Amino acid sequence: MTTTTQLKPVFKRGDVALVLFPNSDLISFKTRPALIVQADGLQTELPQIIIAMVTSKMSRSGHPSRVTILLNSSEGQRSGLLKDSVVMTDNLATIVLSAVHRVIGSLPTEDIDKALKHTLGL
What we know:
Elements: E1 15-22, E2 29-36, E3 48-55, E4 66-69, H1 74-79, E5 85-96, E6 100-106, H2 110-120
């Protein structure tokens, strides 16, 4: 008899993924890119992950809690994003792992860390 174990998907901090992101009503969801901001190896034994919303609405840029990603930059080219975008660390969500469709790219976390510190008052 052989048994198979289902492996949990492994995501890394800095991965850009397509996810079901909750709308502000917390009832409906939209598939959109998001940045995984949870620490690697957190091992909470919960099937969830912390993410930051990514939007292509460039009018939302310019706040210390937000990081602009331009496609013509090296970061933008590695992100997997299709448009210039803004990572909004002031719009975080915890989602179940099954709400992550797939990883499309990655971003360096240095600027994200600064934005998270501003958002969280650290």
